[in-house]
């Protein structure tokens, strides 16, 4: 079975609709016919200033959301990145193969460091994509299911895998990005020219899965559209309406064209009202399932411990091969 790997950061109290539709929804489906590894990258979460009091809670909360959304610990390996020390160890080796200029060209680093001011951006934020490459290559993943904003990081990962393989002999699988067309980029509801994002969106622009469903419904109903009335998918001319259609189609597993036909001759109000209902139906039971997992932290920790054990079986074998290839003296 082909192997997949992906991760989602514990940097907020809730995942948002973009995280789910762009990434996690695919992860759930891929468990059926893939050897799947999913993890919570807490090492990545400390590349920006964070509060130690909330990180552990957010890490458990991220795991609880993944389980509530449909990851099954009997069919996938679910773990926390810091429980598997090989990630940081391989990142060091890959960092020694990455050009300074190459790392400087990563657009997510450029965006995030510009936002913080370059004096405050950390070296960890700069080397973030190298750690992400280590995450992927340790597990010899064939596919990496992510949203569009992660494409460049997967490209860097491929470059590093090829470079290592050609310099030291074939060691890594060269992974493919697995990015859906359509839901790979869910836009901000208030500013449909920007992606929905934990750090960038205004509260009105982002639908958090664990928000009060009434508040989420209101955000959908207040989404920015345009001055026409026609419900039509056209991301260039009508980014707001197109974004709503994308979300609607993805959540109900219907085609955008079907929805266009259904709303032909009806206004945006109907579309928004119905989508608000769809979102409420999706999020209401979800919050309840997340709470069940969070109410039993011991069981959650057991699931994560089992995941880490399985993850280490794979990652330690890869790291040992890497150390051997690059000429490290084996420990006795
Ligand atoms: P993160 O935590 O920012 O986001 C998790 C996933 O959600 C996707 N996503 C979106 N998809 C569609 N529309 C949006 N508006 C939207 N916003 C976010 C992201 O593309 C991502 O797939 N660097 C990664 C975490 C990571 C990782 C990895 C991923 C660390 N190591 C190894 C894959 C493999 C990140 O920050 O994702």
Structure, described:
With 332 residues, the protein is mainly alpha-helical. Helix content is 55%, strand content 7%. It contains 13 helices and 5 strands. The strands form 2 sheets. Strands 1-2-3 form a 3-stranded parallel beta sheet. The model has no long low-confidence stretch (mean pLDDT 96). Bound molecules: tryptophanyl-5'AMP. Residues 5-9, 18-19, 22-23, 41, 44, 132, 135-136, 144, 146-147, 149-150, 184-186, 195-197 line the site of tryptophanyl-5'AMP. Belongs to the class-I aminoacyl-tRNA synthetase family. L-tryptophan binds at residue 135. Keywords: Aminoacyl-tRNA synthetase, ATP-binding, Cytoplasm, Ligase, Nucleotide-binding, Protein biosynthesis. This is Tryptophan--tRNA ligase. It holds the Pfam family tRNA-synt_1b.
Summarize the structure.
Belongs to the class-I aminoacyl-tRNA synthetase family. The protein is mainly alpha-helical and 332 residues long.
Q: Which cofactors or ions or other ligands sit in this model? A: tryptophanyl-5'AMP
Q: Can you count the helices?
A: 13
Largest sheet: 3 strands, parallel
Mean pLDDT: 96
Tally the beta strands: 5
Overall shape: globular
Overall SS class: mainly alpha
Helical fraction equals: 40-55%
Parts with pLDDT < 50 across at least 5 consecutive residues: none
**For the CA atoms, what is the radius of gyration?**
21 Å
